[in-house]
Amino acid sequence: DTNTKIDDIRKNAQATLSDITSLKQNVQSQLNSLSAKIASYQSDMDKIIRPSTDLISLAAKENCIREGVLFNEESVKIVSSSSATSIHHCIDMCRMRDGCEAVTYTFSNVFLTDKFICTLLNKREGNRRSVNAKNTAVSVNMMCYGVAHASQAVWQTCIKANKDFYGSDLHSIKGIPSVEECANYCAKVDNCKSVTYRASSKTCWTKHKPTGDRVTTLNGLQSLTLSCLSVAQTPQAMWQTCIQANTDFSGADIRSVNGISSIEDCVNYCAKINNCKSVTYRASTNTCWAKYKPTGNKVTTVNGLQSLTLSCIGIVQVPPAKWRTCIQTNKDFGGADIKSVKGIASIEECANFGAKVDNCKSVTYQASSKTCWAKHKPTGDKVTSGNGLQSLTLRCIVI
In Å, what is the CA distance from 103 to each residue of 80, 126, 226, 282? Predict the structure, then answer.
């Protein structure tokens, strides 16, 4: 009997040892699988992030798209979402959201499940920056990202030599090597809209108004309005799409100025004025009127005048692939209607219509009835399914 009991104990011990060995092998297998997922993620992040850094200039690359950096959100977070599938999707979400100035896109793996979080922020670099040691985060300053696309020819168009944007200073910094770097620095400062730069002392002044308090002549200074960098990139063919000949955007004037040589220069002038949304121009007198509404108070026919809505310039430059990214098929942005119009041929034309409506932030379009609804919220009051409808947030397509 004693020997039988000893044999039973031995068999039980061997079975227990076998179970422990099997459990150990199973744990090791899961650890190997987790390591493989992490390695795969790092490879995927290289594919997601590094091509995007190639899109921007070398001077701004490091400052605009920050790998391994968190823009800590805390009080400046607008919203976090787990629906973004890439950093580019996260950037598009920011474009669609009022007040979004920056994004942070992070990855984690919880119980072998990948988790991506896109956080939208209302400050250009959050409250503060911190290093993400595991390199599982990327953060983007949206203003910096936009400015960095400008070519050298565009910079030269926008830089005003021997001009001082006097006053409206946010702060100044020394040791900046060029006016381009000064503009990139401004792009990182909340509410910075223009700069003045002195090459001799390498000093950069950031401003909270598009041309400071006033423009004066001062040798050795260079000044630049950040919004000019996007306006100046518009090809001539696209200007012709947006210019409305023999049309007056009557009323809603901010100010007028003489001595403007073209409608294009009139638009550049408008881009430097707070809240300027459209212009009317008379070539015979070289007069430019800057307006605070997209089409003034009303649109009338007047020979010899040209008028243009600034947001149109951004819309007509949108490539087909970008339209496809931004258009939400079979979706209705319900409510928040400003007005509707029939006879619109496409969702793209609906967006152009929306760009000319004051305070329009999104549209919904029905192809079967050629009806376009302009909305005063980025996604209406709520997003619902709607067969045959297409919806779009204007900010998504205006790069």
Answer: 10, 9, 20, 42
> Is residue 311 a contact partner of residue 353, using CB atoms and an 8 Å limit?
no
Q: How far apart are CA 315 and CA 155, in angstroms?
A: 21
Could you give phi then psi for residue 371, rounded to 5 degrees? -105, 135
- The pTM assigned to this predicted structure is 0.46
Q: What is the pLDDT along the chain (399 residues), one digit of tens a residue?
A: 667 777 777 777 777 777 777 777 777 777 666 666 555 544 444 433 333 333 233 434 445 667 777 776 666 677 777 776 667 677 767 766 667 778 888 876 655 556 778 888 888 766 566 665 555 777 887 776 666 666 666 777 788 999 999 999 998 999 988 888 888 888 777 778 899 999 999 999 999 888 899 899 999 999 998 877 765 555 555 567 688 899 999 999 999 999 888 888 888 788 777 778 889 999 999 999 999 888 899 899 999 999 988 777 665 555 666 677 788 899 999 999 999 999 888 888 888 888 778 778 889 999 999 999 999 888 889 889 999 999 988 877 654
